[in-house]
Each structure stands twice: as C-alpha cells, then as structure tokens.
Design a protein that fits this description.
This protein has helices spanning 5-18, 32-38, 56-61, 78-92, 144-162; strands spanning 22-26, 47-52, 96-103, 117-126, 129-138. The chain is of the alpha/beta class. The longest helix has 19 residues, at 144-162.
C-alpha cells in the first residue's frame, strides 16, 4: 500500500481543495484503488464509495446494469471503462468517476486480452462540459499481484493528472 499512498494523498488534497468527490468502479485492481483513497485521513470529505465490479453479479447487483446497457461494448475496453466511470459517477452523485477494468493474470481474460491488460477512465463535468479521459495499459507481465498494484497506480495517476 505504501507505493499508492503518496499518490492517494495528493489526490485527496486536490479534491478537498476543489470541493469535489470521487466514486470508483474497479475490477482487476481488486479494491486497491479504493483502499488507497480511503487510507488517507480525511477521505470522507472526498470519497463517496466504490465497488469491485468483478463478475456479472456485481455488474447487475451493485451497478444495476443489464447487458442491454452495454450493447456493442465489452469489458476491458476504453469505451466500457468510460461507461463504467460515468455510471459510478451518476449513481454516487460525485464530481469524478474512476474506472479500472482488465486482466491481472496470470492468464488473460475470456475476451482475448493478455494478462497485464487494463483500461482506465475518468469522467467528470467541468464548466458544463462532459470530460471523458481513457487509456489502455499493457504491462506485459503475468504476475497477478504486481499487475494489480500497477493497475491501481495507473488509475490513480490518471485521476491525479486530470485534477491539475
């Protein structure tokens, strides 16, 4: 966790200074993004909630979504990450939505993505305009735990860059 805490602290400080909040939808990072944000004292001022949306039951039960909601999309893609970031933002009524969706390993996912593949997205409304930023990370690693840490770090870095 020590590797994520400085970044989470910086994000927390920025969100507090801006009077903004964040909600998180993550999968292959397994809750590390939320854990890092919550480990910062004062997190209740900016963190509104999140979920590890790892399987279809969480997709339906926690997010309240159906297959029809994502017609033409699949997990572990940038369009899906943007959709999920926007969905968690709306559901939790936050300033920012953050999503991570990928394949931590040691093998790839059922969609054909290799281990070490993840897509990240942040969604917000800034000055009346919808802001959607996404990126794909390919670590090239099959080490599940290391990928989880790298995915969480990349997601936090993406959010942090948007807060500058």
């Amino acid at each position: 966790m020590e590797r994520l805490l400085p970044l989470a602290k910086e994000i927390g400080e920025k969100l507090i200074a801006r009077g903004e909040t964040v909600g998180v939808s993550e999968s292959s990072s397994g809750g590390l993004i939320s854990a890092a944000l919550l480990a910062v004292p004062g997190a209740s001022r900016y963190y509104r909630g999140g979920g590890v949306i790892y399987a279809a039951n969480a997709f339906r039960g926690l997010m309240g979504l159906t297959r029809d909601d994502i017609e033409g999309m699949r997990s572990s893609t940038e369009p899906y990450a943007r959709f999920m970031a926007g969905t968690i933002r709306k559901k939790l009524r936050t300033s920012w939505g953050l999503c991570e969706t990928g394949a931590s390993g040691p093998s790839g996912n059922p969609y054909g993505d290799a281990a070490g593949h993840t897509c990240l997205a942040v969604v917000s409304e800034q000055e009346g305009d919808l802001v959607e930023i996404s990126e794909t990370l390919e670590t090239g690693l099959s080490d599940r735990q290391e990928n989880m840490w790298l995915f969480a770090e990349a997601a936090l870095s993406l959010l942090n860059a948007q807060l500058d």
